[in-house]
Write a structure and sequence with these properties.
Largest sheet: 2 strands, parallel
Number of strands: 2
Number of helices: 6
Helix content: 40-55%
Number of domains: 1
CATH topology: TIM Barrel
CATH class: Alpha Beta
Strand content: under 5%
Shape: flat
Strand order of the largest sheet: 1-2
Radius of gyration: 21 Å
CATH architecture: Alpha-Beta Barrel
Length: 144
């Protein structure tokens, strides 16, 4: 944290607020360094709590060399978001990863009314279903 603190202090000398700084804590492969994820989570939390900076990372680094990388990446991202990670470099085409990210946003209050989750996963209404519901609402409001 020594170097990150120096960066924040130096940026402040130039009028750059800590909220405009993004730090990458460098995610290492969990298959090679078993404690890598715990260390990253601790650092992300400290960066947010102590320096008030944003964080990002190459999310797929964590799963390098392992099978079913998307499963590991999804688990990592939910934990990282809960620890305060504000962005990640990841493949938006990997559905399990994106589902985990959208779900984590719901759980962390970043999607408080679940609008993004509902928009992505709600089953489309059957043909004519919305029209029938709208008509019933109109009839109820006329009676009131």
């Amino acid at each position: 944290m020594r170097w990150q603190k120096k960066i924040v202090e130096h940026a402040a000398d130039y009028g750059i607020p800590s909220s405009d700084i993004v730090v990458d804590p460098l995610v290492m492969p969990i298959g090679a360094i078993n404690s890598a994820v715990r260390q990253v989570m601790t650092l992300v939390r400290r960066l947010q709590d102590e320096l008030k900076v944003n964080t990002t990372c190459g999310a797929s680094n964590v799963s390098f060399g392992l099978p079913n990388r998307n499963g590991i990446n999804a688990a990592f991202l939910t934990m990282a978001i809960a620890s305060g990670l504000t962005s990640a470099i990841t493949n938006p085409l990997h559905e399990p990863v994106m589902q985990a990210v959208i779900g984590a946003d719901v759980m962390m209050g970043n999607d408080p009314h679940c609008f993004n989750w509902i928009k992505k996963y709600r089953e489309p209404a059957a043909e004519g279903e919305n029209t029938q519901k709208r008509e019933r609402r109109r009839n109820r409001s006329k009676r009131a």
